[in-house]
Amino acid sequence: MAVHAPPASGKLPLLGHIPALALHRLSFIESVRHEGPVLRIHLGRTPTYLVNDYALYREAFGDLGTVYARGRFFRKLVPLLGNGLGTSDGPFHMRQRRMVQPAFHPAKPAYDAALLLEVVNRQTASWRPGTTVDLAREMDRLGVAVITKALFSAGSAVGEVRAVQESIADFMVGVGIRTVAPDLVERLPLPVNRRFDAASDRLERAIRTVIATYREEGDDHHDILSMLMAARDAEGRPMSDRELRDEVLSLVVAGGDTTGHVLGWAFHEIARHPDVERELHDELRDVLSGRAVTTDDLPKLTYIQRVIKECLRLRNPGWIMMRRATKDVRLGRYAIPEGAELMVSGTSMLRDPALWPEPDRFDPDRWLPERAKEVPREAYMPFGVGTRQCAGEHLSRMTMAVVLATIPARFRFRPVPGHRVKEVPLGTMSANALPMTLEAR
């Protein structure tokens, strides 16, 4: 027999949990995590449920979109991002996923370590010892540079690539605000809204122009956009220009934003843990011996892979995701009514002390084989689950490995004294700033 989920603590008269979630966001979700696997959250008239159990998360969020559709969070994104993989549902989502996925297949991706290394070297060419850089912003820019290079490698797209790279930061700030703030905020004549509108216009023009250019040229540039344009669905139909635009924008947003955030956190943790920095450099010395990393080297960089896995656990960008029940349904033993919203925090679950000993401690060695088996394999889902799993996971992991095998060989990073690093949960979970002074290695 299905039971009703208990309410989460912290509810206020009339206002419910709106102040707690709006003001404290991730910390509120973590504070009530122990109260039950499913909790009722009062956020207005729509029934909302916080899912704290990884098995129930997999059940609901791994659904094809027939029982649990995209939730309120994603519905606010559709007017901003279009109907790409990150926002679509049902049969259309499956059609698009089958057409997009081959571009990221590990066996024959539209990129390699040499391409990624070229981008890393170009983005860091101006760095000099003794200067201070904000690693959070620098890694965000690097993440965008990687995905745009993998998307559009043609020389004819250089101008549009630059426009995308120069616009995406203001665009993402606007998207983040619009996903968590009341609708009224986006209509106010605020500087952040004007910057968002201008960035959105530049992105739209750049993406449409590069698609038109590729169609006119008719060449295979051996990049992601060329593969998307060549893809056909089960009925032999290609993507329309609108569908290509939506997928390109979704990939730029998801690929640049999340990969950059995790890399910033990685350098933050490496700088705070001399033992991690030491072991990372021992591995680079033993595997690379001072030369540049190649695709064949990546499987041998086992410690770097553990650092990446631990960053994805401790600093996972997915602090909030939502689904909507399309009918009355039972989730575990809990009754979920039609139209209810489900909310889950991947970040919170990956810090659950019931699963992860000392969850707030950065410890790459928790991913040693003998220790990793202590946690259920299915509890680790940094890139999502099922058909909603991030299509660009392979590119993201490869980018992080190439960056961590390259930049630390040139520089040591020292945090600026007195700066307090804070988590900033907007559309994804980033850092407020990560100012660090560069030292030559």
Automatic annotation (TrEMBL):
Keywords: Heme, Iron, Metal-binding, Monooxygenase, Oxidoreductase. Transmembrane segments: none annotated. InterPro entries: Cyt_P450, Cyt_P450_CS, Cyt_P450_E_grp-I, Cyt_P450_sf, Cytochrome_P450_Monoox. PROSITE patterns: CYTOCHROME_P450 (PS00086). SUPFAM superfamilies: Cytochrome P450 (SSF48264). Belongs to the cytochrome P450 family. This is Cytochrome P450.
